[in-house]
Amino acid sequence: MIYRFLADLVLSAHFLFALFTVLGGLLVLRWRKLMWLHLACVFWGVLIQWANWTCPLTPLENYLREMGGESGYDGGFIEYYVSLILYPEYLTIELRYLLGILLIIVNLFIYFYVFKSKLRRS
To answer: Are 43 and 49 in contact (CB under 8 A)?
Structure first.
């Protein structure tokens, strides 16, 4: 039971990290000190996609699931909805490059807005 809970916790943290990587620049509008943390996360997200690496959280989650007697992601809400977003079935290398490019583009727009609003305040 504890392993299943820990696996769900890792999956939730993984999802929140991915969400922060994509949209965390919006938080920088409010809390400027988050900028360097967010940029590091964007760098990591692009690197993971383009290098075709596996995020270290994925094997940890799978290990915890195995220790909890699970073999896959069939089950509750977290497994069904969140894992489909984090682990799409047909994630080709071309799609990984596209995701990396989209991550950069989204954050370029966000940071353009952040710096534009900062200049207006000055």
So the answer is: no
